[in-house]
Amino acid sequence: MKTKLSFGILLILYTNIGCTEDKENTEDMPSESIELLKMDKGGCFEDPNLNLKNGELSNDTLFYSVTNDSLVLTISMNNNCAACLIDSISIVDDHVNIYVKNDCGPFANCICSFEYKYFFDNYIEKAILFSVYLKDYKEDEYSLWNEIQYP
């Protein structure tokens, strides 16, 4: 009886130790999906007086670069100076959807260049599709503005 009880206690202890080790191993495994580290705003977000006069408009752009081990997605878009741009992001597997909406109106009589920079981690050796959707304050739904794939 004493042998069976000792064997039972050892079996329980061994099982608990094994579970603890497995749990620690899964916590140390890296995430498989791309991860957003941070987001910065520039252009008219920093200085609303950066109005663009006729003939000085820059092109709307979407591009990526790699800086300090981060994948940086830059969105530069011209919009009305009175725009109240609000962004949100959704990451599903290796597809990143960015939603930008203008939440106010009416319009002012000027144009300004707004810039978003999204910094991502866990992007190496993956094909990642970035899709940017826009919605004006008068519109009911978002529409695709631009897409780019990394690499």
Total beta-strand segments = 9
Distance between the termini: 66 Å
Strand content: over 45%
The stretches of 5 or more residues where confidence is low (pLDDT under 50) are: 5-26
Morphology call:
globular
Instruction: Give the SSE order as H and E letters.
Output: HEEEEEEEEE
Mean pLDDT across every amino acid position: 79
Q: Structural class, from secondary structure content?
A: alpha+beta
Short overview:
The chain is α+β, with helices and mostly antiparallel strands and 151 residues long. 18% of the residues lie in helices and 48% in strands.
Tell me what you see in this structure.
The protein is of the alpha+beta class and 151 residues long. It has two domains: 1-30; 35-150. It has one helix and nine strands. The protein has one helix at 2-28; strands at residues 35-43, 51-52, 61-67, 70-80, 85-92, 95-102, 111-121, 128-135, 143-150. The strands form two sheets. Strands 1, 2, 3, 4 and 7 form a five-stranded antiparallel beta sheet that branches. The chain is globular. The termini are far apart. The model is unreliable at 5-26 (pLDDT under 50).
